[in-house]
């Protein structure tokens, strides 16, 4: 449509034919917005999908004959024939589809963004019903002998197919003879499904109500879900960091010495007893530490241990 705008009959009042045509005078391209990328060697044309494809972006089927605004560029030559490439955006997603002409095979080739639906078989090979070609129908109209032969061939094909058709019809009749039974079976199956759907709907609604107003479509519950949920209840109540902190606190709270010694009253009593048995108080001179350090230390340690034992038994009796 764009190109038609350049050929209208309106000439502005200040138009000067000496400057060239109307487009030159207006500074526009004859193809208008379809030529907006002409400086890149691209023009925008209407491209019609030559066969059925699947889009790589959305996996949708795009039928033969769907039209796109495509960017057309020349990408090469096949002998003296130019090869053109077309780039278009899928109308269902953001994927770009690129196709180019294939003059050698009189076909189009997909460069990227799509897959071709392969149905290039000969329908006669798998006994499909194929409409007569134009040539055959023309010959049938002109040539009486050819028509007779053709009709004979058609009759032969019908006779050959008759027993098979009879079998198929019998089978269909057999299947639909007990229509009451078939109806009952279908309704029973549907009833079970409906009950199940209703129950699941109620369960889902209860779950969503507990979640506090979530609006979701819940997937059906599976055995795997139940197993995972059971495992979650066995999960540790605290993290590794929390456990470490708890251990540190426990160590800090634990007394560095025995419980009898840290007990404040027991400690005081022990100090009194040690003061009462001071060597100076008993008039015994303290031995020099350098002469018999090991002996004195061992004797003092045994004395201390007996004192501790005495103190603890004393405190327990209290
Ligand atoms: Zn797509």
Automatic annotation (TrEMBL):
Pfam families with a match to the protein in the record: Saf4_Yju2
Signal peptide: none
GO annotation terms (biological process): mRNA splicing, via spliceosome
Compositional bias per record (Low complexity), positions renumbered to this chain: 290-307
Stretches for region Disordered: 285-318
Record's GO cellular component terms: post-mRNA release spliceosomal complex; U2-type spliceosomal complex
Family: Belongs to the CWC16 family.
Protein name, as recorded: Coiled-coil domain-containing protein 130
């Amino acid at each position: 449509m764009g190109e038609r705008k350049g050929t209208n009959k309106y000439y502005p009042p200040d138009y000067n034919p000496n400057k060239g045509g109307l487009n030159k005078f207006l500074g526009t391209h004859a193809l208008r917005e379809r030529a907006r990328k002409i400086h890149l060697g691209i023009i925008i044309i209407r491209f019609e999908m030559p066969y059925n494809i699947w889009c790589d972006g959305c996996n949708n089927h795009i039928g033969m004959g769907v039209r796109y605004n495509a960017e057309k560029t020349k990408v090469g030559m096949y002998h003296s024939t130019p090869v053109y490439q077309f780039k278009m955006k899928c109308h269902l997603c953001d994927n770009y589809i690129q196709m180019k002409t294939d003059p050698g095979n009189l076909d189009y080739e997909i460069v990227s963004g799509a897959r071709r639906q392969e149905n290039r078989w000969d329908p006669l090979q798998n006994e499909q019903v194929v409409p007569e070609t134009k040539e055959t129908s023309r010959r049938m109209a002109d040539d009486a002998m050819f028509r007779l032969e053709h009709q004979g061939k058609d009759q032969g094909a019908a006779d050959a197919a008759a027993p098979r058709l009879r079998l198929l019809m019998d089978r269909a009749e057999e299947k639909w003879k007990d229509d009451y039974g078939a109806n009952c079976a279908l309704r029973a199956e549907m009833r079970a499904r409906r009950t199940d759907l209703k129950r699941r709907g109620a369960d889902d609604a209860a779950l969503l109500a507990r979640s506090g107003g979530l609006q979701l479509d819940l997937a059906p519950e599976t055995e795997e879900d139940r197993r995972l949920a059971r495992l979650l209840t066995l999960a540790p109540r605290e993290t590794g960091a929390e456990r470490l902190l708890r251990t540190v606190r426990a160590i800090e709270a634990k007394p560095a010495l025995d419980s009898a010694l840290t007990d404040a009253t027991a400690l005081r009593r022990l100090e009194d007893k040690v003061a009462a048995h001071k060597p100076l108080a008993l008039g015994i001179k303290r031995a020099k530490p350098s002469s018999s350090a090991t002996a004195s230390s061992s004797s003092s340690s045994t004395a201390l241990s007996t004192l501790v034992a005495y103190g603890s038994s004393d405190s327990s009796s209290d």
